[in-house]
Write a structure and sequence with these properties.
It contains 13 helices and 13 strands. The protein is α/β, with parallel strands linked by helices and 343 residues long.
């Protein structure tokens, strides 16, 4: 059963238009001009308990607007939205006790207080029983490895440490719905990996319904089995991440390790003759390594020909970068909508 559900959800913002300069400012005082800007158009999605839906799209596509509507921060213009059976915009206490929103670009804790004092305030706000609070806090602190930072002012922590504290604060009350809006933005690789690992462990233990937005494709690849691609306020793809590669990637990458250095005679001789009648493009040539871009239908033929004609020590076949595939999907027009996750 879907925990998060929207049907034909749309959002339009009314934006003030003003000409540049002092004259434009005077004119705007007397007669304002307005523009209608559509942020979301007929968005229908469902997210079940224990699922992480990756929401992918360019800047301004409508990802954060959708998350804010689901969190009850912004009201929809039309359509239906249900989170745990509630309308988020009504902001009932029953719903708010079961929802968490984590925004990587906005701090939600009190900067001049130590983290543990912030958590005590949140315990009272959410009315968490004392024993449950201690149990949850110990688990979250240990999982994120921030035992030594609990009594340090938030503003004195590093960005990665602050983000971990934000996660703890958001999850103290064990929400059934979690929205993660760019949770790893600006973090170093070590902090990103730690947060991804924690999110997977937390999902396995508590099974909340989660929506993740991120511009880091590694976040999407490692955390999400299903993604929704949003373009100009419309969902253009909704399905398993693996299907994006199988359906829209037209090429694979062959990496060859040569038995010896890649000399001009090999480059202009055996390799050139080999590629002459095959649909393969050279992406990289260096020392004893070559990378070829090959049509999916020709991979077996090209690999067989390479093994027969050129002395190599290793050959690997890779999929195209998932980020590049999704970027192509976002850019192209007329992408057919895939309704719902694949079975």
């Amino acid at each position: 059963m879907a925990v998060i559900q929207t049907k034909n959800l749309s959002k339009t913002f009314r934006v003030h238009k003003k000409a540049a300069g002092f004259k434009g400012s005077l004119k705007a005082l007397v007669r304002r001009e307005w523009l209608e800007k559509s942020a979301l158009q007929n968005v229908s999605i469902e997210v079940s308990s224990g699922e992480i839906l990756g929401l992918v799209g360019a800047n301004g596509a409508g990802k954060t607007t959708l998350v804010k509507i689901l969190a009850g921060i912004v009201c929809a213009s039309s359509g239906d939205v249900s989170v745990l059976g509630h309308n988020p915009w009504q902001r009932s206490n029953e719903l708010r006790r079961q929802v968490a929103l984590i925004m990587g670009q906005k701090a939600q804790l009190w900067w001049d207080l130590p983290a543990e004092d912030c958590f005590l305030l949140l315990r009272d706000i959410y009315q968490i029983p004392h024993n449950q609070y201690r149990q949850n806090l110990e688990f979250l602190v240990e999982s994120l490895g921030v035992q030594d930072q609990l009594n340090i002012q938030i503003r004195r922590l590093s960005l990665g440490e602050r983000m971990k504290m934000e996660l703890i604060a958001a999850l103290l009350h064990t929400p059934k719905v979690v929205y993660l809006d760019e949770p790893t933005i600006g973090l170093d690789l070590t902090a990103q990996r730690a947060i991804r690992k924690f999110i997977l462990e937390y999902r396995k233990l508590h099974k909340p319904a989660m929506i993740l937005t991120s511009h880091y494709m590694e976040d999407i690849e490692q955390l999400c089995e299903r993604i929704a691609i949003i373009k100009e306020g419309k969902i253009v793809y909704d399905g398993e991440l693996s299907r994006v590669v199988n359906k829209y990637a037209q090429h694979k990458i062959l990496s060859l390790e040569m038995a010896g250095p890649l000399t001009d005679s090999i480059r202009q001789g055996e390799l050139a003759n080999l590629l002459k009648n095959l649909r393969a493009e050279v992406l990289l040539e260096e020392q004893n390594r070559v990378r070829l871009k090959v049509a999916r239908s020709d991979v077996a033929q090209v690999a067989s020909a390479v093994l027969q004609k050129i002395a190599i020590t290793d050959l690997s076949i890779e999929e195209e970068d998932i980020g590049n595939i999704i970027e192509k999907l976002i850019r192209r027009d007329g992408v057919k909508y895939d309704s719902g996750p694949a079975s």
